[in-house]
Amino acid sequence: MARLANISGKQAAKAFGKAGWEPIGQVGSHLVVVKSGARVNLCIPQHKELDIGTLRALIRSAGLAVDEFLKLL
Questions:
Q1: What sign results for the dihedral spanned by CA atoms 67, 52, 62, 24?
Q2: What is the tally of helices (H) and strands (E) in the chain?
Q3: What predicted TM-score, i.e. pTM, was given to this entire model?
Q4: Which CATH number is correct for 9-72, 3.40.50.2000, 3.90.930.60, 3.30.920.30, 3.30.70.1710?
Q5: How far does CA 16 lie from the centroid of its chain?
Q6: d(Cα 27, Cα 3) in Å, to the nearest integer?
Q7: Could you give the residue ranges of the DSSP H alpha helices within the chain?
Q8: Where in the chain are the domains?
Q9: What is the 8-class DSSP label of residue 4?
Q10: Are the C-beta atoms of residues 29 and 45 closer than 8 Å to each other?
Q11: What is the pLDDT of residues 31-63, one digit of tens each?
Q12: pLDDT tens across 9-19, in order?
């Protein structure tokens, strides 16, 4: 398993976009993205650095593996 690094919310949103997640709006400093067929919405904080736990939870909610997400970066 590859190791997650600190990335920005903007980089995370771009990677999730490559996986088919589309932005539908923003609430404060959080970008909300959806994917057709997925039962969840992802709420990505637009911070300079995301905590590793927050990023891991977003990846898990998106149904991706860490290695798959790192390839999207």
A1: negative
A2: 3, 3
A3: 0.90
A4: 3.30.920.30
A5: 5
A6: 30
A7: 9-18, 52-61, 66-72
A8: 9-72
A9: P
A10: yes
A11: 999 999 889 999 999 999 999 999 999 999 999
A12: 999 999 999 99
